[in-house]
Every structure is written in structure tokens, then in C-alpha cells.
Amino acid sequence: MPPKNKFTKEQIIETAFEIAKEEGIDSITIRKIADNLGSSIAPIYVNFKDVEELKKAVISKIYEIGNSILQEQNTGDVFLNIGIASVKFAKDYSVIFKELILKNNGYLDNYDVQIGNNIIQEMKKDEDLKEFSEEELKTLLMKMRVFQAGLSIMATNESFALELTDEKVIEMLSDTGEDIVNGMKNRMIGR
Length: 191
Description:
By secondary structure, this protein is mainly α. It folds into 2 domains: 1-72, Arc Repressor Mutant, subunit A (Orthogonal Bundle), CATH 1.10.10; 75-191. It has 9 helices and no strands. The chain has helices spanning 9-23, 30-37, 42-47, 51-72, 78-92, 94-102, 109-124, 134-155, 166-189. The longest helix has 24 residues, at 166-189. The termini are far apart.
């Protein structure tokens, strides 16, 4: 008879997520989760075949949290919503954010492709962006992501906390987005 489930899959994922939040995704181990649950490792292996499967479940939870934060944004501007959500996620989950952005770990590979395609489709609906080809939209998106990632990294640094109020972040994201779009439009006119 297989061992009885002492903990639900959700409890194990939540415990692993808490470890990731404090120490990073790469710090998740079966032993550490068992210790935090006050258990042996056996109940974890009832739910997950190995630590990699568990990390994938944690990554799914992180995607859900990120998407939830994005859904809370309602500025009417897809770039601004993404930027605000990214900075908020970076502030609230700084260890995870830094690990996802600054380390070459493959955790975001599928997410980047999927979210990038979704954003491009949303960009095509924006009247201000109608004149751009799909390739130009991809370039525009990359420029916006570079700025947004840099701003998000700065937001995780406490020494910038006073300068980077929510209002200032929104202003900077909005102004920079407008500057990038206008710059690309001006270059198109000059061709």
C-alpha cells in the first residue's frame, strides 16, 4: 500500500514557494521542504517524483501570481499595465524576481515566448501602434522590456525606495513608453 498523503500538493507547493520567496528557486530542496513541514521526505515524494517537478509547480504558482498582479492593473495601456505589474512583482518578490531576471536558468523560457506573443497581439489592437509591422512591434516590445526590467531591478534596491514611489514609477513608465514609440515613429518618417 502506498504511503498516506500527510500533506496536500498545494501545501507542499506553498512551502516550496515560501522557500523560493526568501532564498530563491534554486534553494528549493526536498529536505528543506520536509524540514519546514516538520516531516520526513516521504510525503513529498508521494506528490512529486523529484525536486524539478516541484520547482515547475512553483514556477506555475509564480506565473499565476504575476498574472494576478497584471490583472489588477487597469490603466487602459497594455505597456503601462505590464510595467506597473512588473515593478510591483519585483518589489513584493524581490528574491524571485532577481533570480528569474538575472540568472540564466531557463525558468522563463516558455513563459517569455507565450507572453511575448500575447503582448504582440494586444499591441496590434492599439490605434497608436497600427503603423508598425510585427517585426517593429517586437523591437518596440524589447525596448520597453529592457527599460521595465531595469526599473524593476532598481525598485528591488532599498536605496531607491524613496525615489521610486508608485506615482513616480507610473510616470516614468508612461513617459518612457511614449518616448520610445515616438522615437520609432520619427525614425520611420526619416526613412
